[in-house]
Design goal:
By secondary structure, the chain is α+β, with helices and mostly antiparallel strands. The chain contains 15 helices and 16 strands. It folds into four domains: 89 residues, Uridine Diphospho-n-acetylenolpyruvylglucosamine Reductase, domain 2 (2-Layer Sandwich); 116 residues, Uridine Diphospho-n-acetylenolpyruvylglucosamine Reductase, domain 3 (2-Layer Sandwich); 110 residues, Alpha-Beta Plaits; 98 residues, Alpha-Beta Plaits, CATH 3.30.70.2740. InterPro entries: FAD-bd_oxidored_4_C, FAD-bd_PCMH, FAD-bd_PCMH-like_sf, FAD-bd_PCMH_sub1, FAD-bd_PCMH_sub2, FAD-linked_Oxase-like_C, FAD-oxidored/transferase_4, Oxid_FAD_bind_N.
Length: 463
């Protein structure tokens, strides 16, 4: 990056907020995927929407690329700067601007931490339900850019379902004010939904208006042991028919073992099972617990469930959740290659069985960890890197097998990326989930929002 551009960036945001220090370039130039070598040219940290606009206009004028950056907790390489780009970090734009108890909405800047939004809503007796393991460090702008899902989707849906307004800076530096928090707005194309999930390729989210809801009552957790994967959905159907489920999560014995190796936690019960289901529901009436026990007894009688435990307090519920939520952290030391994939729930058992056969055959020496949001059809396939392989060697072997896995996904009309996005990791495989016509239209939309291609180039697809 030449000094002339750096001087202009300093003039826009101040000397303290422009950095080319090697440690900053490394920190801000990559996300949690850890696959790609960061190669940012400079980091710029604006404080206002107007500064973001001016940076984008400067990028158009001086022909440099911009990578929008939030908490960088993504796993698809979507926030990686690998080709000398300017990283535009939104971490200073982190204010909660207002909350409206009548409209049940919260307005905040894009750099606001997800957990802060949850806590602020709770202080006002409201609830933001989109939840996942990285809420303590992820930012709402990044959540919007990837349409983040997480552990409560079965009840409350994805990020998309909770965004009722956006302010976005396009690739030309124009500011769009989209939907303004309206519940009903039938006035043509809803550009808000184009931005959500676009991974910073169409515009930079600077503010969001978020819908809130009533807090759930007395969330109670069951962990159930199963020997057969095919028994998952009879169990789910049994519980869903009678209880208001807020989560239905899955993890394997191998995944649980990794958590127990790295954390001071106990097995949920003495016996071991091949698979585990975590069920969460609202204990909102005196009869709810009786109904939960009836469902459990029915599942035991049918032979679907071999053992189980139910939380008796909020702290016990948190401990049971830790068995599921700490899996990613526990396997991170192995630099796992992650596949975030989905099919409709009724096809999960077939899909997982087929893919398990593929990976067992193709990766005989690799350790495989399965877990995920099985209630909405989303599974995380984690392949752990052996110590004797470099990251490049390991990734090359994993990519060799990807087409076999993605062929099966395509046969089942599934998705190669359920909630992590496409970024750099999955862009070569986009045709497994999107048709040629769809991809061509996506490129046309990209050109309309960002005619000079300065926003997050090389992500999703190549122009």
């Amino acid at each position: 990056m030449n000094n002339h551009i750096i001087e202009q960036l300093i003039e826009l945001v101040g000397k303290d907020y422009v950095s080319s220090d090697p440690s900053d370039l490394k920190e801000y130039g990559q996300d949690w995927s850890k696959i790609f070598e960061p190669n940012a040219s400079v980091i710029v940290r604006p404080k206002t929407t107007e500064q973001v606009q001016e940076i984008v206009k400067l990028a158009n004028k001086e022909a440099f690329a911009v990578v929008p950056s939030g908490g960088r907790t993504g796993l698809s390489g979507g926030a990686c700067a690998t080709n000398g780009e300017v990283v535009l970090s939104l971490d200073r734009m982190n204010e909660i601007l207002s909350i409206n108890s009548i409209d049940r909405t919260l307005q905040c800047q894009a750099g606001t931490i997800t957990k802060q939004i949850q806590e602020f809503a709770s202080e006002h007796h409201l609830y933001y339900p989109v939840d996942f393991a990285s809420t303590g460090s992820s930012q709402i702008g990044g959540n919007i850019a990837t349409n983040a899902g997480g552990i409560k989707v079965i009840r409350w849906g994805m990020t998309r379902d909770w965004i009722v307004g956006l302010k976005v800076v396009t690739g030309t530096g124009e500011l769009l004010d989209l939907n303004s928090g309206l519940v009903k707005n039938a006035t043509g194309y809803d550009l808000r939904h184009l931005i959500i999930g676009s991974e910073g390729t169409l515009g930079i989210v600077v503010e969001a208006t978020i819908k809130l809801t009533t807090p759930p009552k007395d969330l109670t957790v069951m962990v159930l042991g199963l020997d057969q994967l095919s028994d998952v959905y009879p169990v789910m159907e049994t519980f869903q028919q009678k209880l208001n489920l807020t989560a239905f999560e899955f993890f394997s014995e191998q995944a649980l073992s990794k958590v127990l190796e790295h954390h001071e936690l106990q097995r949920p019960f003495e016996s071991t099972s091949n698979f585990y289901i975590l069920v969460e529901f609202e204990n909102d009436s005196e009869s709810t617990m009786d109904i939960a026990f009836e469902c459990f007894e029915q599942a035991m009688e049918q032979g679907w469930v071999v053992d189980g435990v139910i939380s008796q307090s909020e702290s016990q519920a948190e401990t049971l959740w830790a068995l599921r939520e700490r899996i990613s952290e526990s396997i991170s030391v192995h630099t796992p290659y992650k596949n975030d994939i989905s099919v409709i729930p009724s096809k999960v058992a077939e899909f997982l069985s087929s893919v398990d056969e593929i990976v067992a055959k193709e990766y005989p020496d690799f350790e495989i960890i399965w877990f995920g949001h099985i209630g909405d059809g989303n599974l995380h396939l984690n392949i752990l890197r052996p110590d004797d392989l470099t990251i490049d060697q390991f990734v090359e072997q994993c990519r060799r097998v990807n087409p076999l896995i993605f062929d099966k996904i395509k046969q089942l009309d599934g998705s190669i990326s359920a909630e992590h996005g496409v970024g750099l990791v999955k862009k070569d495989y986009l045709p497994y989930s999107r048709s040629e016509v769809e991809i061509a239209l996506m490129k046309s939309i990209k050109a309309a929002f960002d005619p000079k291609g300065i926003l997050n180039p090389g992500k999703l697809f190549d122009q």
